[in-house]
C-alpha cells in the first residue's frame, strides 16, 4: 500500500483545501481574480459537490462499496458513470478548483495539480487494474467508451 492509500480521497481534498487556504493567506503570490469574478468559483464548487454525491449515490444504489481498493461487487456504468469513469474524483477536483477560484490567488491554485496527481497516480490507475481483473471484458468495453475524467 502506497503513501496515498493511507488517506482516503476526501482526506486528500481536505488537506488540499487547507493548503489552498494557507497559501491564500500567507503566500497568495498574484491575485488572478477579483470580486465579483471570484464568485464564479461557486459553479465548479457546486458542480463538484453534485458530481461526487451522484457518484456515491450510484454506488450505493448498486450495492457496492465506495471505499478505494475494497472489492467491488458491481461495475457501475449508469448515471454519471456514462459521462466519466471517475465522477467522485472529478467532483473532488472541481470542489478544490472552485474553492481556489473563490480565493482568486495563484497560491490557492497550487494544490490543484498535486491533488490531481495523487488521485491519478495513487488511486485511479491502480483501481483501473483491479476493475479490469475483477470485471474483465465488461470493464475493458466500458473503459473504451467512457473517458477517465471527461
Provide a concise account of the structure shown.
The chain is mostly helical and 150 residues long.
Structure explained in plain terms:
- This protein is mainly α.
- The protein has a domain at 41-65 and 83-150.
- Helix content is 63%, strand content 0%.
- The protein contains 5 helices and no strands.
- The protein is elongated and about 50 Å long.
- The model has no long low-confidence stretch (mean pLDDT 95).
Strand-helix topology:
Layout: H1 9-26, H2 42-62, H3 87-103, H4 106-109, H5 111-145
Largest beta-sheet characterization: none
Distance between the termini: 28 Å
Find the structural class using helix and strand composition.
mainly alpha
**Net shape:** elongated
SS strand fraction: under 5%
Characteristic key phrases:
5 helices, mainly alpha, 63% helix, 150 residues
